[in-house]
Specification:
This protein has about 260 residues and is an alpha/beta fold. It contains nine helices and 14 strands. α3 crosses α4 and α6 packs parallel to α8. It is globular, with a radius of gyration of 17 Å. Bound molecules: adenosine-5'-diphosphate and N-acetyl-L-glutamyl 5-phosphate.
Length: about 260
């Protein structure tokens, strides 16, 4: 099967102009078929505060009321997505920006009210992804850049965690490509001490994950990232890495080990 890299980039890199531009230069050199999924939660939080809408996050997920939905749509689908596309075009990467509403790429269901009402937050399923449109974009030599905005097929946009979008697309395409999913962020990978880049944990299995979580070594935003990563691996994705944004080419060119690799 043809290789496909699905690379996710998060808020701390997107928020730093020079880090983002450095990453995009590298991303444009990743060989073969590739998809970029971006977040941008940090910028959405800043814009939200500037507009007087106090952001509220529970376990890394944003409570998205009608006002917050306007903010995240403007920030993710507009500001961030289009800036990334323009920068990739400047790097000779033929990028095409998409939300989950475009070409019915990612239909979602509004999260049902349980203990917590998340508001306009969408839950997604890999079976419902429009894999056909992604395959045709990739075979035309273009690179989809996916924003974390989905839709409910009834005219409403929904906010979906970007780590979840990346793993859902990876699973949806795993029948057609040998998919490697790479979560890129601002640290060397999963660390024993979150403040020490020399404490990299090179490999994690589901059993080790449980242990690291119980010990509080894996916490905050790393929990949904790990959950999504392991689920992708259990659903046919060939390889999953959690690594520094600067190491993307080291991983895709198989130069040397970098970041954390997940194993079943
Ligand atoms: N063991 C760990 N190793 C690395 N990062 C961790 C760990 N535990 C918690 N984290 C936190 O998880 C964050 C990454 O998750 P998140 O903020 O959601 O990033 P992104 O926006 O890139 O998806 C890191 O910035 C770090 O603060
Ligand atoms: C529902 C939900 O939480 N959506 C996320 C989408 C953005 C995101 O995931 O951004 P990062 O990858 O930069 O964290 C949010 O609004 O924060």
């Amino acid at each position: 099967m043809q290789p496909l890299y699905i690379i996710k980039i998060g808020g701390n890199i997107i928020d730093a102009e020079s880090k983002l531009s450095h990453f995009l230069q590298h991303f444009s050199q990743v060989p073969g078929a590739k998809i970029l999924v971006h977040g941008g939660g940090k910028i959405a939080t800043e814009v939200s505060k500037a507009l007087g809408i106090e952001p509220q996050l529970i376990d890394g997920r944003r409570i998205t009321d009608a006002g917050s939905l306007k903010v995240v749509t403007m920030v993710y689908a507009g500001l961030i997505n289009k800036n990334i596309v323009a920068q990739l075009q400047a790097n000779k990467c033929n990028a095409i920006g998409l939300t989950g509403a475009d070409a019915n790429l990612i239909p979602a269901k509004k999260r049902q009210i349980g203990a917590i009402d998340y508001g306009f937050v969408g839950d997604v399923e890999s079976e419902r992804v429009n894999a056909t449109i992604l395959k045709s974009i990739l075979s035309a030599g273009s690179t989809p850049i996916v924003a974390p905005i989905t839709h409910d097929e009834a005219g409403n946009l929904l906010n979906t965690n970007a780590d979840t979008i990346a793993s859902t697309l990876a699973v949806a395409l795993a029948k057609s490509y040998a998919v490697s999913l790479i979560y890129c962020f601002e640290k060397k990978g999963v660390l024993r001490d979150v403040n020490d880049d020399n404490s990299l944990i090179p490999e994690i299995t589901p059993t080790k994950y449980q242990e690291l979580r119980e010990n509080g070594i894996i916490a905050q935003g790393m929990i949904p990232k790990m959950d999504n990563a392991l689920q992708a691996l259990q659903s046919g994705v060939k390889a999953v890495h959690i690594a520094h944004a600067d190491d993307v080419l080291t991983i895709t060119n198989h130069k040397e080990p970098a970041g954390t690799v997940l194993h079943l």
